[in-house]
Design goal:
This protein is mainly α. It has one domain. The chain is 60% helix and 0% strand. The protein is built from five helices and no strands. The protein is elongated and about 60 Å long.
């Protein structure tokens, strides 16, 4: 299975449009145009076909994590009162 197959299947499974993919990639500061995406989604025998590189797929997956889960919380210094409050808040929210 190629990188093109993977990104195509994820696009279909998650019902993403080209604009959605561009937005997801922008979450990780990776620039790509809808024209470039169109070349990736073409069949291999098409003259404008372009292979999806590892870097594009990696950045798409990283951006997808941020898109679905939201941005990561900033780490808090160990032993600080802020960290203890965050832990207590999380426990209260779950319970």
């Amino acid at each position: 299975m190629t990188n093109n197959d993977i990104i195509k299947k994820l696009r279909v499974a998650l019902q993403l449009k080209d604009d959605d993919i561009v937005r997801i990639l922008s979450l990780v500061d990776f620039k790509v145009t809808t024209t470039e995406l169109g070349a990736i989604f073409r069949k291999e025998d098409h003259p404008n076909y372009k292979e999806c590189g590892d870097q594009l797929l990696r950045n798409f997956l990283n951006g997808l994590v941020i898109h679905l889960r939201g941005p990561m919380e900033k780490p808090v210094a160990a032993g600080s009162d802020v960290k203890k409050k965050v832990i207590v808040k999380r426990i209260k929210d779950k319970g």
